[in-house]
């Protein structure tokens, strides 16, 4: 009977009959629907303004925990291998010192030019000119280009270039150009840039 009464009241229901000042007189189904609507609204607002923020805080805390664990693992690994790192550092310092020793100082450049000239003469070349060019400074070293013009046979020029690798100082060769001295002749003229380096001490 109660269900029939409820259905009949809903059938005869008119929105204009609802009195906001007397909500208790509203039909039960309308009241139930209203309470469900309020409950859903409270859940929605509570989730978006409280629970969602807590979830974001939890996610940040979990990510921070992972980052902290990774940082701890990295530091623990480094601590466990500290002696190996120290040995590696000493080896690197020795290697760096050996490389720096191959970079000429200002006072050794004349000796390097003499070595280049001797290499040319030993290989049967005629050294037309050796000209120092302007230095170019880099972060850790200073580059000194040397323009070289030499004349000789093809094989003598090749031997000269190969012998440059045997110099006690670091020298790199760049910008080669070879041309015949005269038409029909066997001699060739080679122009190239030899670059040597010195350590930029004191920045």
Can you tell me about this structure?
The mean pLDDT is 79. It is built from five helices and five strands. Strand 4 (171-180) and strand 5 form a beta hairpin. The protein is α+β, with helices and mostly antiparallel strands. It has two domains: 1-80, no CATH class; 104-199, Alpha-Beta Plaits (2-Layer Sandwich). It has helices at residues 2-11, 28-80, 82-101, 109-122, 154-163, and strands at residues 126-132, 136-137, 141-152, 171-180, 188-199. Strands 1, 2, 3, 4 and 5 form a five-stranded antiparallel β-sheet that branches.
Superfamily (CATH H level) name of the largest domain: Ribosomal protein S6/Translation elongation factor EF1B
Low-confidence stretches: none
CATH architecture heading of the largest domain: 2-Layer Sandwich
CATH top level label of the largest domain = Alpha Beta
